[in-house]
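Let us begin with a simple case.
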Amino acid sequence: MKNKLLLTLVTFYCSLNLFSLQINMHTYANPQVLLLQNMIVSPLQIQYRWHYMQKNGKIYKRLYNETNQEWVGNWIYVRDV
């Protein structure tokens, strides 16, 4: 009876250690997260904005690429003031 109790306790103790090792193995940080800090993030869509200018009583507009910070096309006449 005493041997069965001792064997049961030892088995129970060993099984607890095995389960705790599996839990601890999953708590470490993932090294792939550190790689993301060095990556350059770029938008999936190019952002455009219209800019307006009034000159000699006429209104013109021109498209500006906000993502690449460059003008797209020429000034376009809109209407008189």
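The second case is a distinct protein. As before, the sequence precedes its structure tokens.
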Amino acid sequence: MLRKVIPAFLIGFFAFSTLLAHEKHKHQPASPDTVLKSADSSVVLAPSVDTLPYRVPPMQDALFHHLHNEIVHLPIGFGLGAAFLFLLALRWPELHRSGLLLALLGAAFAVSAYFSGQAQTEPFEGTSKEWVVELHEKIGVATAISLWILVLFGFWKPLKRYAWVWGLVTLALISAAGFYGGLLAHG
């Protein structure tokens, strides 16, 4: 029964999350050129700010300015992959080692995501989003701990067969941390 329920849940989850991803999200059309009136009453068309070409910032700024926002995708991806492989390992046991490797990589990058996140908290101090930062931090720490526990489940023989269960717990924590992180990064 479990072999039918889990795939059905995953298919349903991904199908509905894709369908609802941009519900009620309004894309603004490109703004027309700005009309300026000069002193002699002639009309001059000037390009709007949105139509100016994008300028790439200096490489160092682009790579390291918001490092947490870039690093955090690694424990998310590795954690999701590990949970998925531990689930598949119920049917194909040879996938267990790959899941373990992904869990280990996710746990290691979660530590660097924590420290890079600490470096980005200052701009939020004293703002209306400060509580979101604190909640995101707590859930992120719980997620990092969960990833390390997932590694333990993968290594320790008596717990190996339950790694998929802890993988689902880790998935829930990754989702919660990602949700609040998304609120911070994207509004």
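Strands lie at 34-37, 43-46. The chain has a mean pLDDT of 82.
Keep these points in mind for the review questions at the end of the chapter.
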